[in-house]
Amino acid sequence: MERPKQFEEHRWVGDKRTQIVYDVDQLEDETLIAELMASGRYLCFGPDTLAEARNRGYRPFKGNGHGSA
Predict the structure, then answer these.
(1) Backbone torsion region of residue 32, taken as left when φ is above 0, otherwise alpha when ψ lies between -120 and 50, otherwise beta
(2) Residue 8's pLDDT band (cuts 50, 70, 90)
(3) Any idea what the Cα angle at residue 20 is, between residues 15 and 24, rounded to 5°?
(4) What is the DSSP string of 1-66?
């Protein structure tokens, strides 16, 4: 998947509504990120790592997009 324009330099994008973080480089379903960008409830992390996202309380995306398989 191509990275969203706002996040060209970021691999990890978080959803503030669900506390889920998405690996944009590995995500197959582009509609998840498109909906997130439309909502305006997203955030990036500095440094741009999964460890930093977890440090802020975010869980990695699994299965259906809600943090569960």
Answers:
(1) alpha
(2) confident
(3) 75
(4) -PPPGGGTT-SEEEETTTTEEEETTT---HHHHHHHHHHT-EEE-SS-SHHHHHHTT-EE--BTTT
Burial (CB count <10 Å: 0-12, 13-18, 19+), residue 13: buried
Per-residue pLDDT tens over the stretch 16-32? 999 999 998 888 888 99
Q: Which residues pair with 23 in a beta bridge?
A: 12
What SS3 class is residue 69? coil
Token pair for 29: 């379903």
Q: Mean pLDDT throughout 1-14?
A: 83
pTM: 0.83
